[in-house]
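Repro:
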Amino acid sequence: MKYFEISKIPKTIKPLKEFSTPESVLEAMLEEDQVLSSWIDDLTYIPDQDAVLMTLLSGRNYMVYDMGEEMFDAWIDAPSQGVFWHEYIRDFHQVM
């Protein structure tokens, strides 16, 4: 079953390993809320990329771009992060 398309990284988007401030990623991870999901292990908002690093229980990582902090907060606060993913994110945001 195919849930979303994985496309090439546009030149304007930095891959995760090229963040201008690695400290911002660490800071975001230290300040994050716990995720309660049967398949999502972790969600981390990366402000300088306006993106979310999504880590699945399988260990796979995905970047979800053009999220915005309000959308991220709504995702974290949702009763089910998986349902929120399917209803509001997977077909509306670039995922790599």
